[in-house]
Structures are given as structure tokens and as C-alpha cells.
Design goal:
By secondary structure, this protein is α/β, with parallel strands linked by helices. The protein has one domain. It is 28% helix and 15% strand. It has a 7-stranded mixed beta sheet with strand order 1-3-2-6-4-7-5.
Length: 204
């Protein structure tokens, strides 16, 4: 699959799509030629946050799109949404878990994960992501994935997370895409960029 679904068009007037503006000459991000396409839906109130990572995330993938808005007509892919389910409780031995519509783990995990062509991540704080989830009813028809990270977010004290298993968008994308494509170098590169960003903010 070489492109995102054409019907993914934001209805909010604040919608913006594509990649962020060009960065400085010493920016060394080299995008991965990813098989799993990445679509990030960002809440409009999240876009100006100093600690936001959506823009940095899409720069790491050749096949990635960032859209800002509140509602979109449809999408038949997969949604990564934190929700109330916890991977550690449902499937302690797995870092990536596919759920059914009842919020229970699917029985054929490995087969379902192999069939994934693209992922959708909701970018914003807890309440903003929840608003995106409920304003886009088509997401209820998508398969839902939850993550069980081995360590807490690298945000640490810089940005408070609602739960220990909450991750920054870049961390979630790094973990999910690297597992689905079996390419640990993806997670390593995105993690290094995130840590560099956090170090720069801490030194300001």
C-alpha cells in the first residue's frame, strides 16, 4: 500500500496535513522507508505544545501523515488509543495487544498483527485524545491496539502522564512500528531523537 486512504480529509477548519516545515541544517533525521503506514490525528489544542512529538514522529517515516482537527468522515484501518484497558493485565507476556470491540484480547494475535497495513495514533493529552475518539464514530469499527511498555515514558517530570503505561506519541509509534516490522532500529532511532529533544528543552 503506497498511500493513505483518500477519504481521510479533516472537517475542522484548523486542519493541517503533511509534514512540518523544514528544520535546521544540523537536523540529522533520516526517514525510514516504513511498510506500516502511520497516520497521526492531532487535537488542535495540542499543536503548540513545546513538548509535543507528533511533528518529530512523522519526520522519521517516509509513509506518515500528520492531520490536525477534531473530526474526519471515515477510516478503515487500526486505532491506537490508550483507553481503560491495560496490556499488562490482559496479556502480560505481550507488548502489543489487539482487542476486540468488547475490549478483550483477540485470540489470533499474531495473525492479526501480521495483517496490519497502517496505524492511527491520537495525539493529545488524555482528555483531548478521548475527545478525538468519541467525535469520530468510525473508530469504533476499527481494530484497537494497546501497548504494554517495559518502562515509563521518557517525559519523566517534564510532562505528567495519567498512567505509568502512557507514552509520548513518538514512543508509541516507535514501539508499535518497530514490533510490527521487526526492526528494532526504528525504535532506537526515534528514542534517540526524543531524548535529544528532551535534553535540549531541559537545558533551556
Amino acid at each position: 500500500m503506497q498511500h493513505m486512504e483518500p477519504e481521510v480529509v479533516a472537517s475542522a477548519e484548523h486542519e493541517r496535513e503533511g509534514r512540518p516545515a523544514a528544520t535546521s541544517s544540523h537536523d540529522t533525521v533520516v526517514p525510514f522507508d516504513n511498510r506500516i503506514q502511520v497516520l497521526i490525528l492531532q487535537h488542535p489544542q495540542e499543536r503548540d505544545r513545546t513538548l509535543g512529538t507528533a511533528g518529530l514522529t512523522v519526520r522519521h517515516f517516509r509513509h506518515a501523515i500528520l492531520k490536525v482537527g477534531l473530526s474526519w468522515p471515515s477510516l478503515t484501518k487500526i486505532v491506537l488509543y490508550l483507553g481503560s484497558a491495560k496490556a499488562a493485565q490482559l496479556a502480560p507476556d505481550r507488548e502489543v495487544v489487539v482487542l476486540n470491540r468488547k475490549g478483550e484480547p483477540e485470540s489470533n494475535q499474531d495473525v492479526l498483527l501480521r495483517d496490519i497495513e497502517g496505524v492511527v495514533l491520537l495525539d493529545g493529552n488524555w482528555s483531548q485524545a478521548k475527545a478525538l475518539w468519541w467525535r469520530n464514530a468510525w473508530m469504533l469499527k476499527c481494530r484497537r491496539v494497546i501497548l504494554g511498555p517495559r518502562r515509563p515514558s521518557r517525559y519523566g517530570q517534564l510532562r505528567r502522564e495519567p498512567r505509568r503505561d502512557s507514552l509520548a506519541t513518538i514512543e508509541a509509534a516507535a514501539m508499535l512500528v518497530s514490533r510490527l516490522e521487526n526492526r528494532p532500529e526504528i525504535e532506537a532511532a526515534l528514542t534517540a531523537s526524543f531524548e535529544k529533544m528532551l535534553a535540549q528543552i531541559s537545558n533551556q
